[in-house]
């Protein structure tokens, strides 16, 4: 084999529910190198790293470490192969001591009863803490440390396992600038010690600072590896978004003018994820909310619909101030919400399509008071939905869990169209859906909007935003940081703004 | 699938019918007197009491919780009826009082479990203690209260030679079948056990639906308590004990999964019949009370394990099918 790098990943495939997330990814990283991994949401970064960390099993492909092929079936195997994962959300025991957290996988024991040797445990932990430069007493309870210190404990734990490959998943997301400096110092030290470091991040300035090379993933494929010493931010951005627009978008109805009535207006929405979000939606408009995962797009929608707690803020529907606070109330006021996770919040998978379609509208088709469901009326509506919304199934009695992703999504979408709401919020309406079904879903949305529906659309695909929205709001850290009209929006502007790197 | 696996799969999927068939054959040979009308009627009038509670219990278990306080509620309700009757000579007032108190008890259970998120087993176990204690206090030192004959009119009268308690049970059962299979409420109950999040996100007030399942259970316990004291002609210390266990056994034997979501109300009718028959048989065979407890515990453990084994079996079959699809 020609490739002599320390870690070599070749042709990894991985599918979930028939949707291919990794389409033959290859990449390699050398010892003593910090290798950045970048890509838009859903590009496959996390999936790839979870395959490496033993959380998912690959469908096919090879992983070689130091020239030897390894099989990583579970996290234990990953540990043995010298791979350590520093998670975005730390996975440590708050109530145990620092030493215990570091040594948990191989606690030293003594005596005939194999009791834990506390003295040795603390000594060993101290050694690893010194290596990462964290000066805390090993007997301190972990919960008393700051997040940054806890992260350092996690790195010390990785060292105790003799890890040669360290994966950092957005390690700076909850660190201050000063703490980030300290982390970078540690990473440089590890690198000098010969470790192979994979650094996942959305922040291009960090990538340029700490990484030697950067690999970009898009749609489950490696689209290029750049040397950070010579690459520019523009090159990076264009790799991330790609150049070709593959989908066909239907002709949108014209954007409503300034005089069109405001169907929904929100002012200063605040909760733990939102820092004062205000915007308005006009009748017949498709408004896009764009941003990275966690930027506050879905969180805004969930807060409006009452699925998440809203600390303060005002919501107006057709000019009237309303108090929502629960999905029940939101729907009574004419708001519907297609959540991003159809298998968890969209469908009751074990029940048939008919029942799934009519959950929100049962009061309309049952005898008032008694609640007896009029089966004929229900069947009529369901049959109508089948033909109007192009659901492909053996019939209304097919279990929704056995449908393809695209048809499941059409069922959830139809369910909300049937509510005849004024406002429909769509969170990732085409996630995990094949291209054919995607085009049909766009077609359906456009048709409903021409009939007077107003839509808020959330997506992490820039092309979908550009192709389907009259207006796009860009969010970061729970705030709206930019607004584009359909005419002025470009992929470069959207991605550049939400990554917050150097100007594009 | 190999032959042995096919047999295994058939056994798992049809555990209850197989059990019933075996039992029936055994009884037919050993104790033909069991199948006489009078024996079946006496069996029915006892089973109707806790059978009523089993209707509510089915709804609760479908949503994924259980209620071990139903027996104690039947006890408390019954004692109240007796005391109210002694004071007013009104059966109706007693019934109302019993139903209201049991509904309050269940409403609290529902609030604690659904709104506050307490484990249902612990909450209702504590409530069982509370109700048992209260009922015993109300009975007082008498420990047995004999009532005049008029009091027994409801529980001991018959219509077309069928005990009135059995008729009430069957009637309410019929109504519950319609409610569960044809109304909004019923559909939500099934769905909540499967995926409560999806139902909440569909704009349904999940708390309200679940609270109603508790209220229905309470109301049925209040009614059962009334019929019970009327049938036995008075109140006695500790009556209603272990009825929650018969209920639970009937529901799981009837094919409703303790994990919630799957099962159906009609199965519970079958379950009530099976459990009542086995109970009667154990008495007819003069089995000692200790062995009797061992037997009932065993039945419930067995049925619940079968339910999970069935789930694993189905999962394995699904995985095998997927693997075959992939590699063919």
Walk me through the topology.
The complex is a heterodimer of chains A (504) and B (328).
Chain A: E1 7-16, E2 19-29, E3 33-38, H1 45-52, E4 60-65, E5 68-69, H2 75-80, E6 83-86, H3 98-103, E7 109-110, E8 115-116, H4 118-132, H5 147-160, E9 165-169, H6 177-192, E10 196-200, H7 204-210, E11 213-218, E12 221-227, H8 233-241, E13 262-270, E14 275-282, E15 286-290, H9 297-305, E16 312-317, E17 320-322, H10 327-332, E18 335-338, H11 342-346, H12 353-358, H13 362-365, H14 375-388, H15 405-418, E19 423-427, H16 435-450, E20 454-458, H17 462-468, E21 471-476, E22 479-485, H18 491-499
Parallel strand pairs in A: 3-10, 3-11, 6-9, 9-10, 15-20, 15-21, 18-19, 19-20
Antiparallel strand pairs in A: 1-2, 1-4, 4-5, 7-8, 11-12, 13-14, 13-16, 16-17, 21-22
Chain B: H1 3-13, H2 15-30, H3 37-62, H4 70-88, H5 91-115, H6 120-139, E1 144-146, H7 153-156, E2 158-159, E3 162-163, H8 164-182, H9 184-201, H10 206-232, E4 234-236, H11 243-253, H12 265-284, H13 289-327
Antiparallel strand pairs in B: 1-4, 2-3
Summarize, please.
With 504 residues, chain A is of the alpha/beta class.
Q: What this model shows, in words?
A:
The complex is a heterodimer of chains A (504) and B (328). Chain A is of the alpha/beta class and 504 residues long. Chain A folds into 3 domains: 150 residues, Rossmann fold (3-Layer(aba) Sandwich), CATH 3.40.50.300; 75 residues, no CATH class; 238 residues, Rossmann fold (3-Layer(aba) Sandwich). Chain A is built from 18 helices and 22 strands. In chain A, the strands form 5 sheets. In chain A, strands 6-9-10-3-11-12 form a 6-stranded mixed sheet, with helices on both faces. In chain A, strands 18-19-20-15-21-22 form a 6-stranded mixed sheet, sandwiched between helices. In chain A, a hairpin with a 2-residue loop joins β11 and β12. The longest helix of chain A is centred in the middle third of the chain and has 16 residues. Chain B is mostly helical. In chain B, the strands form 2 sheets. In chain B, strands 1-4 form a two-stranded antiparallel ribbon. A two-stranded antiparallel ribbon of chain B has the order 2-3. In chain B, β2 and β3 form a beta hairpin. In chain B, α3 packs antiparallel against α10 and α8 packs across α9. The two termini of chain B are 15 Å apart. The interface between A and B is medium-sized, with 31 and 22 residues.
């Amino acid at each position: 084999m020609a490739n002599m790098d320390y870690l070599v990943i070749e042709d990894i495939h991985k599918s979930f529910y028939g949707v291919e997330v990794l389409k033959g990814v290859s990449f390699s990283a050398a010892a003593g190198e910090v290798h950045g991994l970048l890509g838009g949401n859903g590009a496959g970064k996390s999936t790839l790293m979870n395959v490496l960390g033993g959380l998912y099993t690959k469908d096919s492909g090879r992983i070689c470490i130091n020239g030897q092929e390894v099989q990583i079936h579970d996290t234990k195997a990953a540990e043995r192969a010298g791979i350590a994962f520093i998670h975005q959300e730390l996975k440590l025991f708050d109530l145990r001591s620092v030493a215990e957290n570091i040594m948990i996988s191989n606690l030293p024991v003594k005596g005939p009863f194999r009791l834990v040797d506390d003295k040795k445990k603390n000594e060993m932990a101290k050694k690893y803490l010194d290596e990462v430069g964290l000066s805390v007493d090993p007997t301190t309870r972990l919960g008393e440390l700051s997040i940054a210190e806890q992260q350092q404990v996690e790195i010390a734990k990785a060292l105790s396992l003799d890890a040669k490959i360290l994966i950092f998943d957005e390690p700076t997301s909850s660190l201050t600038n000063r703490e980030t400096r300290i982390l970078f110092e540690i990473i440089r030290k590890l690198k000098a010690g010969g470790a192979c470091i994979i650094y996942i991040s959305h922040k291009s300035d960090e990538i340029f600072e700490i990484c030697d090379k950067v690999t970009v993933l898009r749609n489950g494929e490696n689209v290029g590896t750049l040397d950070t010493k010579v690459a520019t931010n523009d090159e990076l951005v264009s790799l991330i978004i790609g150049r070709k627009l593959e989908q066909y978008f239907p002709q949108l109805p014209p954007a409503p003018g300034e005089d069109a009535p405001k169907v929904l207006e929100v002012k200063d929405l605040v909760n733990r994820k939102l820092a004062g979000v205000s915007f308005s939606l006009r009748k017949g408009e498709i408004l896009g909310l764009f941003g990275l995962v966690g930027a506050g797009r879905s969180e805004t929608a969930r807060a409006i619909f009452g699925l998440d707690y809203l600390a303060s803020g005002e919501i107006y529907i057709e000019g009237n101030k309303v108090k929502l606070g629960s999905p029940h109330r939101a729907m009574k006021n004419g708001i519907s919400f297609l959540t991003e996770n159809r298998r968890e919040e969209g469908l009751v998978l074990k029940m048939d399509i008919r029942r799934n379609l009519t959950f929100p509208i049962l009061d309309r088709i049952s005898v008032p008071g008694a609640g007896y469901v009029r089966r004929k009326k229900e069947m009529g509506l369901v049959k109508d939905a089948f033909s109007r919304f192009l659901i492909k199934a053996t019939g209304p009695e097919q279990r929704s869990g056995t449908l393809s992703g695209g048809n499941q999504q059409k069922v959830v979408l139809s369910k909300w169209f049937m509510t005849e709401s004024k406002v429909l919020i769509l969170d990732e309406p085409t996630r995990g859906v094949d291209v054919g079904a995607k085009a049909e879903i766009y077609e359906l949305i456009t048709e409903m909007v021409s009939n007077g529906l107003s839509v808020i659309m959330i997506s992490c695909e820039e092309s979908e935003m550009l192709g389907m929205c009259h207006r796009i709001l860009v969010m970061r850290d729970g705030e709206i940081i930019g607004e584009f009209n359909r005419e002025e929006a470009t992929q470069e502007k959207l991605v550049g703004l939400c990554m917050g790197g150097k100007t594009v | 699938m190999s032959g042995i696996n096919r047999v295994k799969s058939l056994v798992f999927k049809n555990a209850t019918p197989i059990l019933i068939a075996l039992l029936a054959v055994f009884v037919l040979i050993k104790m033909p007197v069991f199948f006489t009308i009078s024996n079946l009627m006496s069996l029915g009038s006892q089973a109707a009491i806790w059978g009523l509670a089993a209707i509510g219990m089915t709804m609760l278990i479908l949503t994924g919780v259980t209620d071990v306080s139903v027996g104690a509620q039947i006890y408390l309700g019954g004692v109240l009826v007796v005391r109210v009757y002694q004071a007013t000579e009104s059966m109706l007032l007693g019934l109302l009082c019993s139903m209201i108190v049991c509904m309050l008890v269940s409403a609290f259970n529902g609030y604690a479990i659904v709104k506050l998120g307490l484990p249902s087993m612990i909450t209702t176990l504590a409530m069982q203690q509370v109700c048992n204690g209260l009922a015993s206090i109300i009975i007082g030192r008498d420990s047995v209260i004999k009532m005049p004959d008029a009091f027994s009119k409801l529980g001991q009268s018959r219509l077309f030679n069928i005990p009135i308690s059995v008729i009430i049970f069957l009637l309410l059962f019929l109504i519950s079948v319609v409610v569960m299979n044809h109304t909004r409420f019923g559909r939500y109950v099934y769905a909540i056990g499967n995926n409560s999040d999806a139902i909440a996100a569909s704009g349904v007030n999940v708390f309200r639906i679940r609270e109603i399942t508790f209220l229905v259970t309470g109301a049925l316990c209040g009614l059962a308590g009334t019929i019970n004291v009327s049938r036995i002609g008075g109140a006695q210390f500790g009556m209603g004990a272990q009825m929650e266990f018969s209920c639970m056994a009937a529901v799981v034997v009837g094919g409703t999964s303790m994990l919630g979501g799957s099962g159906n109300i009609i199965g519970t009718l079958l379950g009530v019949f099976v459990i009542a028959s086995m109970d009667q048989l154990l008495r007819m065979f003069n089995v000692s009370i200790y062995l009797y407890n061992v037997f009932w515990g065993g039945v419930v453990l067995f049925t619940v394990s079968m339910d999970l084994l069935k789930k694993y079996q189905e999962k394995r079959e699904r995985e095998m099918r997927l693997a075959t699809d992939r590699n063919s």
